[in-house]
Write a structure and sequence with these properties.
This protein is of the alpha/beta class and about 375 residues long. The chain folds into two domains: about 180 residues, ATPase, nucleotide binding domain (Nucleotidyltransferase, domain 5, 2-Layer Sandwich); about 160 residues, Nucleotidyltransferase, domain 5 (2-Layer Sandwich), CATH 3.30.420.40. Helix content is about 40%, strand content about 15%. The chain contains eleven helices and ten strands. A six-stranded mixed β-sheet has the order 5-4-1-2-3-6, with helices on both faces. Strands 9-8-7-10 form a four-stranded mixed β-sheet, with helices on both faces. β1 and β2 form a beta hairpin. α2 packs parallel to α4. It is globular. It starts with a strand and ends in a 19-residue tail after the last helix. About 5% of the residues have low confidence. It binds 5'-O-[(R)-(carboxyoxy)(hydroxy)phosphoryl]adenosine (KG4) and zinc ion. 5'-O-[(R)-(carboxyoxy)(hydroxy)phosphoryl]adenosine (KG4) binds next to α6 and α7.
Length: about 375
């Protein structure tokens, strides 16, 4: 079973083809991140316009790359260890990749309205034209399904050797979400807790803005932190009434107050002027201290949930899942091997959507009506 996954919830226009939920046949991502960099965050109108420009070529490329092998049947039966080849087995004129596709999965929420609309309307149109079943996917749930991908012949991917075994504890840490979820099985889960204000990735992005280092903030702050002392400053960890809930807005404000104090300025001093007054050493120490506390916050609760629920597998999804400090702390504090996926599958991509789509089809989950599927910008798990 081969599913085309389409993802346009934020600033990445992405499409991928996945076989049977475990084998990645293609993964194409076009990001409009560069266009947003000078604003220090995603501008919804720019993201939506850019999806319109990119969606057709991205899908075409994903379909072409998925079936770009001399012996298509071989690659489709076993995606492992087959060398991609640029010649089609059938003459290109006779080969229609759509004959190979069994269904389409698309992100319908959560995300930016204008961005989601482009992906959903494209998927609806393709489902009608090519007569394929359509599956609506929750983006946040999708992030965890990147960890189910264990095979690929695509170059430069490091995937876990084994697929997750239920029960699974899932931690989603992205620019829009911070959630802990306990899965008894596919589509049978409880949301244990989530952030009550900013997401952890959003906190990284906002701290980067205060420090005047490039967007997206996660990779910049973690790079800067390499030269800093993670214990130089004491920053607060939020105490939440919900056992598994998170909060990051207080931590972000504490970083702002710390930066103002380090510069000898009062609370009303504009945050945009601080970075010019901070030395590289101060920025490195603030980055390292912030990162330690932000990561400890999610790791503390993941360890707590692990102890209570005793899952067979722990998986992590979302852009922050590629953070090396997070991986180091989890590895040190959990008594099992964690299935870390390739960093390219942590940030937004179509592969995770296609993987979840495969399980929806396999397990007879509800098919979406291609004439009526609507977007759900505030969809929760
Ligand atoms: O999953 P994603 O691509 O988009 C959302 O669904 O939100 O996550 C993007 C977020 C951004 O906030 C980015 O700063 C953060 O993930 N991020 C990181 C790292 N790489 C990306 N945060 C910390 N460390 C990283 N290495
Ligand atoms: Zn995401």
């Amino acid at each position: 079973m081969k599913i085309l996954g389409i993802e346009t919830s934020c600033d990445e226009t992405a499409a991928a083809v996945v076989l049977d939920g475990h084998t990645l046949l293609s993964n194409v991502v076009a990001s409009s991140m560069d266009l947003h960099a000078k604003y220090g965050g995603v501008v919804p109108e720019i993201a939506a316009r850019s999806h319109i420009e990119s969606i057709t070529p991205v899908i075409e490329q994903a379909l072409t790359e998925a079936f770009q092998t001399e012996d298509t049947s071989l690659k489709i039966e076993d995606g492992k260890n087959k060398k991609p080849n640029s010649t089609f087995h059938l003459p290109p004129s006779k080969f229609d990749p759509w004959d190979q596709i069994d269904g389409i999965a698309v992100t319908c929420g959560a995300g930016l309205g204008g961005s989601l609309l482009v992906g959903v309307l494209t998927a609806r149109t393709l489902a009608i034209i090519h007569k394929k079943p359509l599956y609506a996917v929750n983006h946040v749930e999708g992030h965890l399904y990147a960890s189910f991908l264990t095979n690929t012949s695509l170059p430069d991917y490091t995937l876990p050797v084994n697929a997750p075994q239920f029960p699974v504890l899932g931690l989603i840490v992205s620019g829009g979400h911070s959630q802990l979820v306990y899965f008894r099985d596919h589509f049978d889960y409880d949301l244990l807790g989530q952030t009550k204000d900013d997401a952890i990735g959003e906190a990284f992005d906002k701290v980067a803005k205060i420090l005047g280092i490039p967007y997206p903030g996660g990779p910049s702050v973690s790079k800067m932190a390499l030269d800093g002392d993670p214990r130089k400053y004491t920053l607060p960890k939020a105490k939440m009434p919900g056992k598994y809930d998170f909060s990051f807005s207080g931590l972000k404000t504490a970083v702002l107050r710390l930066a103002q104090k380090e510069c000898g300025k009062l609370h009303d001093f504009p945050s945009t002027k601080l970075s010019a007054l901070l030395s590289d050493a101060q920025k490195a120490d603030i980055s390292a201290s912030f990162q330690r506390v932000a990561i400890e916050t999610v790791v503390d609760k993941t360890v707590l949930a692990f102890e209570q629920f005793q899952p067979k597998t722990v998986i992590i999804g979302g852009g922050v899942a590629s953070n090396t400090e997070l991986r180091a702390q989890l590895t040190a504090r959990l008594p099992l091997q964690i299935l870390y996926t390739d960093p390219k599958l942590c940030t937004d991509n179509g592969a995770m959507i296609a993987a979840l789509g495969c399980f929806k089809m396999k397990l007879d989950q509800q098919v979406a009506d291609p004439y009526n599927l609507v977007i759900s910008p505030n969809l929760s798990m």
